């Protein structure tokens, strides 16, 4: 008698049988345009190596010397032996083993923040991370617990944080940025609108000084007002401050964390722009208290440590030692140690602005419909053009004119930026800036003529 027991369908889809994976079955972030955009930009840069590139926001390599790394390591080892009285075996363990999850140079970072930024926190509130990107990821993962939790961001916004939010399935709400950065009243309106729609505005991500990509900076009054709103609306602030040292005009403004009296601010930092990008060392100051179910109190930094132990485990001890030695050598005054770099970037940004003005004087700007902002510092500025500045235009600019830039549309979550491009001058020489803006001006003029028909 034949077996009539029903059996499961064991047919294997063709793509599975061949070992291929269905992209639709992978995480949705893999098809996010933001991730594709960054890969495309890297690919264009690689395909046109002779083009002058205003695209990357990386620091200049002009003062880097390979032998500096050995000196920084020695300075850190000497610090451990001479100032802390450590034995040779203790130093060896510190440098060669995994080390403390929250980092081993947290105390040196805290001393430096006190000197440079007037931020006075316990070393235990500092988590040393693998670049600032990990600091963002840890902070977002810890703070955003419910589906309705919402991250507010300026629009345009740095894609690193919006990309991280996408990886973690965190809802993001853009807030339009003005010439002076995010408007506190617009943030307040966004908080209340989000709540009315059933969301829980949890935190705001902001770069208060010379933001990437716009170059905009908040006034001191706006910073103080933002902190008032944060307390009033139970909103946390993720302050990212990679460019604050690099002032072009005026004087440095206080960070949000330095003004913070209610522990509303998590201060995200990095040594990529102020020290060594290759070290990949960042940090987050998370001095907020966390109350457990039985009333026990810990620091938010301790909670972030739990997440870090399941991701990168710890930050490279060697990288920390290199940065630690550099901090020791600077007397824990990194702003003073960056005096030459500050002058360099100031000169580059002034040169970039001067070249734009030379090629596009007022009458010419009006005729073509070209305009740009004039940041008080940092690495970036934005040019508005009378044509769509997208990937297709970028490729034409690279191939025909030998000049690269970054399309601004990728930085907007709510649409916009189609007629804008970002220029970075941090990694270029004066001669490259002069030649590059000449090429860009020719490209813009030709594209504007085509757009006008």
Beta fraction: 15-25%
Q: Any low-confidence stretches, pLDDT <50, length ≥5?
A: none
Radius of gyration (CA) equals 24 Å
Mean pLDDT: 93
Largest sheet: number of strands, sense, barrel closure: 8 strands, mixed
- Secondary-structure-based class equals alpha/beta
Biggest sheet: strand arrangement: 2-9-8-7-6-3-4-5
What does this structure look like?
The protein is of the alpha/beta class. It is 44% helix and 15% strand. The chain has 17 helices and 16 strands. An 8-stranded mixed β-sheet has the order 2-9-8-7-6-3-4-5, with helices on both faces. Strands 12-13-16-15 form a 4-stranded antiparallel β-sheet, with no helix packed on it. Strands 1-14 form a two-stranded parallel sheet. It is globular, with a radius of gyration of 24 Å. The termini are far apart.
